C-alpha cells in the first residue's frame, strides 16, 4: 500500500511539473509588432521656416517733393499698367514750367536781335566799302565795322547757347511736372498703401514708399535654411510648404533661388541662408503675404532601397558601435540580422545589405524589443493596417 501511494505521488508530481513547464513555455512567447520591408526611393527633408511674399514686388516712390493732392487707388485694388495711382500738387511745378517757357522765348528774341544787328552792320560795311573804293571813306571805318560784325557773331553764338540751356531747363521742368502724376509701372495689386492725401511725398531715398505693387499671380515663400543643411538644397528641388493658417494643407513648390551669402538671424546662434521657394498655383486656400510658413525641402534618391522604420534599428552594443542590427521574424522565431545602413528620412531607414523586400522586421513594443534575444519565440500581433501600403 505504501509503495502504491508513493507511485501515485511521483506520477502526480511529474504531471504537475509538465503543466508548469507548458505554462512557462506559453508565457515565453512574446507578441510583437512587425513591418513588412518595402523597397522604394527614400525621401529626406530639410526643414526651414519663413514667410509668404508676392512675386515681382514694386515699391513706388515719388521723384519730386510735393504734397499729395489725391490718392486714386485703395489697398487691395488691382491696377493696370499706366493707371494713375497718386496725384501730387502741381502749382509750383506749373509755375516753373511757365517761367522756363518765358526764358526760352526771351532767348529766341535775343537771337533774332543779334541776327538783325549782324545784317545791319553788314549793310553798313558794304556801303562804306563802295565809298572807300571811291576814296570817299577811310579804311579805319571799314575796320571798325568788321570788328562790330565779329562781336555781333560772338553774341549770336552766346545767345544760341543760352537758348539751348533754356530749352533744357524747360524740358527738365516739364519732366518734374509730369512726375506729379504717379502711374503704375506694371499690372498688379496694391498690397500696401503708405501715403494719405495731404501728406508730404519725399523724393528719392525715403524709407517708406508711397505704395507697394505686387504680382498676385505668383507667390513665394522666403525661408531661412540653416548653414548645416544648405549643402542639401539645390535649385529646382521640390518643396512642401505649410502656411500657419493651413497646417493640414501642403502646398507644392520648388526652390528657385539660393542666397550666395549667409546672414545672422536674431535669436539663432548659427547662420542661415535665405532660400526662395516658388509656390505652384492652387485654389485650396487663400494665401496672403506675410503669413508664416514651414517648408520641407525634399531630397529624393534616384535608387530604391529596402526601407524599415527607424525604430527597428539597433546598434551592435558595447564594442560594436559601428554595427547595426534588426530582428526578423522567421517561423515564429526572432532572428537577429546584421544590416548595413544607407540614407534615411524622418521616418524610414534605407538598408543596403541584410534585408530583402517582404521580410518581417520587428518594430516593437519597445519594452519587448529592448530585451529580445536571438532565437526567442514570438507571435506577430494581428493588425487591420497594411504596413506596406505606407
Describe this protein's structure:
This protein is α+β, with helices and mostly antiparallel strands. The chain folds into 4 domains: 28-40 and 303-389, conserved putative lor/sdh protein from methanococcus maripaludis s2 fold, CATH 2.40.420; 46-56 and 215-302, Efflux pump adaptor protein, beta barrel domain (Elongation Factor Tu (Ef-tu), domain 3, Beta Barrel), CATH 2.40.30.170; 62-89 and 180-209, OB fold (Dihydrolipoamide Acetyltransferase, E2P); 91-179. It has helices at 2-27, 91-133, 139-178, 366-369; strands spanning 30-36, 38-60, 66-71, 78-79, 84-88, 181-183, 188-193, 200-201, 211-226, 238-243, 251-258, 263-264, 271-279, 292-309, 314-315, 324-330, 333-344, 348-353, 360-364, 378-380. A 6-stranded antiparallel β-barrel has the order 2-9-13-11-10-14. Strands 6-5-3-8 form a 4-stranded antiparallel sheet, with no helix packed on it. The protein has a 3-stranded mixed sheet with strand order 19-1-20. β12 (263-264) and β13 form a beta hairpin. α2 runs antiparallel to α3 (139-178). The longest helix has 43 residues, at 91-133.
